Protein: Nop domain-containing protein
Organism: Brassica napus
Amino acid sequence: ISTTSTSAFEGHNWMLSSSHPLVIMLLLFETPGGFAIFKVLDEGKLSNVEDLGNVFSSAESARKMVKLKAFDKFDNTSEALEAVAKLVEGTPSKGLRKFLKANCKDETLAVADSKLGNIIKEKLTIDCVHNNAVMELLRGVRSQLSELISGLGEQDLAPMSLGLSHSLARYKLKFSSDKVDTMIIQAIGLLDDLDKELNTYAMRILADEVEAELKEASVISMGTEVSDLDLIHIRELCDQVLSLAEYRAQLYDYLKSRMNTIAPNLTALVGELVGARLISHSGSLLNLSKQPGSTVQILGAEKALFRALKTKHNTPKYGLIFHASVVGQAGGKNKPRIARSLAAKAALSIRFDALGDAGDNSMGVENRLKLEARLRSLEGKDLGRLAGSAKGKPKIEVYNKDKKMGSGGLIAPAKTYNTAADSLLVSAENGVKEKKDKKKKKKAEAEEEEEAKSEESSKKKKKKAKTEVEPEVEEPAKKEKKKKKKRKHEEEETEEPAKKKEKKEKKKKKSEA
């Protein structure tokens, strides 16, 4: 019986075939279980679906209805899990195909999954049936399973079913005991705490410069005595600092190994510390895999983001990803670009690490090389080693289509010098000379045009100068006429205010009268 839900059966009501006797296939979901085929003894009772429940009310009536024809036992749990997983996906396993070929010749097979029935019919050419009567028949067989199969007790069914169901649940959820990111979150938090403690302890210890001066002064100076109790506390403090530094180195190695196991591609891109901080900030690797590249880019800069949105300023371009080596090697203008590209590649690598089955870092190394090539094209400089790799940058050989794979020989023979190509060189040189001559002609024509334009402009200037001089050389008669006109205009202007005064006085007299 497949574990497929009943929604997959809707719309499928296959009619029973009368030409072949009906056979039912049954699968047990237990470790000692296997494939079982029951033969239907009384096909007439299948017409009345409601009475099938009464047929399987007792073991005796069930034996009269169906009979065990064949049973193939699973060898171990892994084989049972593989068979069940295949049936959940709707495909028969290799063992099931062999079992059906051996025991279902010229017979009709009743199945609980219509999709599985179609595949069996196509690949094995076995007629399959699925309808409501088949489902009721399978329910009845399941209720009397321990009575129909000898050697299978009811007390064994529950633990076997529970064990196999747990295995199937782990398979569905892609659970891996190695991918435990809780220890990474705790390790990176403890590493940060150790750094703070070491810095606090280091404040009680002399700096290197003061220590050198103290050693020089101790040769000359008398100094003061140090009691044994003070010396004990000083030594204990030094021992604690040394032990913390040693433990920090061990913790970093542990974090590095866990990151290479759980998130190898993310580690190859951004390094162990930055990758661990990203996982810790998100809560888990699975939660981090659900974030888009834009969120990964500013993860850790939430305060700056909300402050920028509130004050309507520019939003931050990077968060925790700023400490990655690729971003650190970029210049000021190129940092946002590289951070954006790195976040996009990191989002893909995180999803591959969290949801993929491969355990290598090939995807991360490939993306890291692409990012370094882009940064090299932007800034034009060589970059450092890969993060999380002690081997450094791998060599990239130039592709040669004539070179054989795995050997230094060439597929095609080496090319010899072609003397006939010399004529092409001569023609090419002649072409270059012709181009130079054309350029010279164009320059000469341009110079001639400029000279003509300059002559025209000089002529125009001379004409303007003449027009300005002509008004000065006017006839004396014209000058006198102009002077007379000016005098008349001045007299009229002086007369007008007098006339206005007279008019005003006349108006006043009239008003008084």
Notes: The chain has a mean pLDDT of 76.
